């Protein structure tokens, strides 16, 4: 386990108040302060307890299917002129990296003596993962989901209900992920004694950004060793992942941040908190947020419900500020192109979220900003089944492209 | 930079004076910009016996508010309400009681803490409640508010342990806001069971006025909630009435009924 305290270049622990530089913190109502402190204390103890960590890794292996492979993409590499390796989180149980976090938080819920979890979800992947962990561990589960997202991700709503979870439609605000977080936080205040809030990304109040990154760092830790085995002991030149809140990217970067790989996070163009956001406070954290000049939060807009979030995890805001990681954006059209490119060249249909990372890679390989011959690790954070219907609706019968 | 001219009624002094004269404190609430004539609602609340009025600066993501204030905030924002507009409307009329804004931290942060506090002073607002910053994060705002002469009101919750409560009492200005229940704002059919215990703990810790809020809807609930404290905040019940079309006079009647119930004890 890595628990470095360095704050300069690495991804160590945040400060005692949960800060990554100026970002992070714990901006919650007084009523939630004891609960956040309890989660922090419980996680610190659990993460230092070999029995807890052992149980977590056992479940990731025997239940979730870890380690996930790194797949060498021969045909895509030939097409792009760079060597592409995919870290295959799409092959986990439930089909995305979200399972890593919920197994950890599910075990933590049990360790805290609680029997119930609540969660927010955007695309539905975190909701499905939470419902899955709840079923596995015998916890009751309620998932808050924006009404608009429920319509976009009908299948995931059904999956959650099949897994025994209650899905609550959130009808306030933009009826998407940010409003689902609002509603989950409101619910948590009223049942904090019995309920753990299983937040799905590296966002929210301390300790969540740090805790969720630690629970996702298995992606980067595995990938680093897999890459070194493939690349004669070296790291890839570029490590790229998509970023909504940023959990798969944070987990991936954690494995490579102390090396020399170029780290790139790719946001949705319509939800680019690093590109277009300014510092603010939302959902318990100080970070970069899309907002107007008076401080009202703006709605993100993306084809991908999972990236439809007006903020970014505070550690990403920090890494952007220090320059250790860079953040780019991809638009809906190039994302759809990239999705089809991977499907045709490798037989892998990605979720729309990691298709953003692919779109950036395709563009950057073609314009030379990722030089020909570079080695690139891309985290394939989830599989495309959930988006097939939406993508079909956009592409119609003409999915075949020149 | 010249100091802004001093306007408005100082919050703590006014509430202490009323309390020490034997009155239970009534604090009412209106969402700024809720209707084009929202200041008339504020005015009638004052005339009907409110000891202070909270003015909500609507925020897009009010995580501590229930459906009523969410709806009011969304409606006000849809009407184009901005903090500048609300404060400008307040600046136009001097009030005989203290005005307190209630909002979320991002609006304060975005404006800049000092600048935001300065705008409150210019509008004659003498207190501010920002419920999404706990003690660990509120220091900079407390300092900026104090420097400008605005009382930064802090909130205690039923789960607040005694050591934190002592710290809240030490740092809160104007009054100490007791959150009656573990939950969000909104009307409730009965008073929370956690209210009286929290009120008594707060009173044991401080001589500041202790005002209870969240879920106080009716005159009977107001009187009951005030019995262990110095007063109450009534917000969602009044806002619900405005949302449902209550006239200014009807809101005046409701506030008058709350006043009468508190005066009866």
Structural class of chain B: alpha/beta
For the record, what CATH class of the largest domain in chain A applies?
Answer: Alpha Beta
- Uncertain runs of chain A are 1-8
Q: List how many beta strands of chain A DSSP finds.
A: 14
Helix content of chain B: 40-55%
Overall SS class of chain A:
alpha/beta
Helical percentage of chain A: 40-55%
CATH architecture of the largest domain in chain A: 3-Layer(aba) Sandwich
In angstroms, what is the radius of gyration of chain B?
A: 17 Å
Domain tally of chain A: 2
According to CATH, what is the class of chain B? Alpha Beta
Output the CATH topology of the largest domain in chain A: Rossmann fold
Tell me how many strands of chain B there are: 8
- Spatial separation of the terminal alpha carbons of chain B: 48 Å
What's the oligomerization state?
Answer: heterodimer
Based on CA inertia axes, which overall geometry of chain A fits?
A: globular
Strand numbers in spatial order across the main sheet of chain B: 1-2-3-4-5-6-7-8
Q: Count interface residues per chain for the largest interface.
A: A-B, 37 and 42 residues
Into which percentage range does the β-strand content of chain A fall? 15-25%
Task: State mean pLDDT of chain A (0 to 100 scale).
Answer: 94
Shape of chain B: globular
């Amino acid at each position: 386990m890595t628990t470095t305290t360095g704050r300069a270049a690495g991804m160590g622990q945040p400060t005692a108040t949960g800060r990554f530089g100026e970002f992070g913190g714990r901006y919650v109502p007084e009523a939630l302060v004891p609960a956040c402190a309890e989660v922090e204390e419980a996680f610190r103890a659990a993460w230092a307890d070999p029995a807890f960590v052992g149980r977590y890794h056992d479940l990731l292996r025997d239940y979730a299917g870890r380690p996930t492979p790194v797949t060498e993409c021969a045909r895509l590499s030939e097409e792009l002129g760079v060597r592409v390796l995919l870290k295959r989180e799409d092959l986990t149980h439930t089909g995305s990296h979200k399972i890593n976090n919920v197994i950890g938080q599910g075990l933590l819920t049990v360790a805290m003596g609680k029997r119930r979890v609540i969660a927010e979800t955007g695309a539905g992947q975190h909701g499905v993962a939470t419902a899955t962990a709840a079923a596995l561990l015998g916890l009751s589960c309620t998932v808050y989901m924006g009404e608009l997202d429920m319509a976009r991700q009908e299948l995931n709503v059904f999956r959650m209900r099949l897994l025994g979870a209650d899905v609550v439609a959130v009808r306030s605000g933009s009826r998407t992920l940010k409003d689902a977080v609002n509603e989950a936080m409101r619910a948590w205040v009223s049942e904090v004694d019995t309920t753990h809030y299983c937040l799905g990304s590296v966002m929210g109040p301390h300790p969540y950004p740090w805790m969720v990154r630690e629970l996702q760092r298995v992606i980067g830790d595995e990938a680093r060793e897999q890459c070194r085995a493939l690349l004669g002991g070296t790291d890839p030149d570029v490590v790229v992942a998509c970023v909504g809140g940023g959990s798969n990217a944070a987990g991936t970067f954690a494995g490579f941040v102390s090396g020399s790989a170029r780290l790139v996070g790719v946001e949705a163009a319509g939800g680019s908190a690093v590109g277009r956001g300014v510092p603010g406070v939302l959902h318990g954290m100080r970070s970069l947020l899309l907002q107007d000049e008076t401080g009202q939060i703006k709605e993100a807009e993306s084809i991908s419900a999972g990236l439809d979030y007006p903020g970014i995890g505070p550690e990403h805001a920090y890494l952007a500020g220090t320059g250790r990681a860079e953040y780019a954006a991809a638009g809906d059209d190039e994302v759809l192109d990239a999705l089809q490119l991977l499907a045709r060249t490798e037989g892998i249909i990605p979720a729309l979220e990691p298709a953003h990372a692919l779109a950036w890679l395709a563009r950057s390989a073609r314009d030379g900003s990722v030089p020909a011959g570079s080695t690139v690790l891309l985290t394939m954070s989830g599989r495309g089944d959930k988006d097939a219907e939406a993508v079909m609706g956009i592409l119609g019968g003409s999915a075949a492209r020149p | 930079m010249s100091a802004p001219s001093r306007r408005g009624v100082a919050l703590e002094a006014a509430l202490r004076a009323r309390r020490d004269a034997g009155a239970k404190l009534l604090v009412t609430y209106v969402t700024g910009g809720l209707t084009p004539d929202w200041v008339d609602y504020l005015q009638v609340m004052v005339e009907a016996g409110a000891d202070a009025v909270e003015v909500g600066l609507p925020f897009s993501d009010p995580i501590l508010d229930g459906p009523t204030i969410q709806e009011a905030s969304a409606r006000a924002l849809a009407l184009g309400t901005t903090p500048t507009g609300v404060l400008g409307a307040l600046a136009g009329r001097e009030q005989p009681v203290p005005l307190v804004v209630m909002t979320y931290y991002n609006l304060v942060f975005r404006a800049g803490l000092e600048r935001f506090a300065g705008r409150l002073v210019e509008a004659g607002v003498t207190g501010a409640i920002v419920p999404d910053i706990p003690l660990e994060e509120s220091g900079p705002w407390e300092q900026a508010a104090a420097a400008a002469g605005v009382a930064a009101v802090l909130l205690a919750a039923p789960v607040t342990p005694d050591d934190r409560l002592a710290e809240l009492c030490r740092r809160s200005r104007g009054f100490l806001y007791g959150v009656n229940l573990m939950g969000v704002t909104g009307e409730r059919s009965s008073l929370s069971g956690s209210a009286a215990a929290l009120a008594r703990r707060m009173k044991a810790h401080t001589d500041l006025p202790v005002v209870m809020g969240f879920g106080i809807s009716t005159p009977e609930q107001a009187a009951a909630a005030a019995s262990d404290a110095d007063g109450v905040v009534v917000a969602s019940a009044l806002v619900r009435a405005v949302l449902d079309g209550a006239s200014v006079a009807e809101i005046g009647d409701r506030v008058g009924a709350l006043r009468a119930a508190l005066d009866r004890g």
